[in-house]
């Protein structure tokens, strides 16, 4: 008898992670249709179009693959965490049975242009292609979150002669 509850728990926890208690697929489809009915991803969406959109960006270094001292190049794996507020992608979560998050493809929404200036690949842009295989999460207040993993090769000046640095000895007790 208890195995039925365990199976039910596992099915709801791992098979349907986007849909919470009391939220069904139809409500998600209705919300998505309403949000994107007249949405144009080519236009930035702010209350005042003269105002810039505040884009928050942080990144984490996941791995260093190589440091080529001769070429002054660093090869890394980085995750960029990017978020912004899209004024047209807001909804009242109480009208959608408490649904407060929606996950859609990146190609569905406006995204900021982010360029890595010191990239060896001549000003690498984050995601010029493959937007249909990347996803964003939209909160009911319009906050859009995008995590993108990038293998990055950047130029970096490597100091090989450290004799000119003023290093002071440190005594640990």
TrEMBL record:
Domain Neurotransmitter-gated ion-channel ligand-binding stretches: 31-158
GO CC annotations, alphabetized: membrane
InterPro entries registered for this protein in UniProt: Neur_chan_lig-bd, Neur_chan_lig-bd_sf, Neur_channel
Gene3D superfamilies: Neurotransmitter-gated ion-channel ligand-binding domain
TM helices/strands, residue ranges: none
Record-linked Pfam families: Neur_chan_LBD
GO molecular function: extracellular ligand-gated monoatomic ion channel activity; transmembrane signaling receptor activity
Taxonomy, superkingdom: Eukaryota
PANTHER family found in the cross-reference section: NEUROTRANSMITTER GATED ION CHANNEL
Protein name: CHRNA10
Organism of derivation: Mytilus coruscus
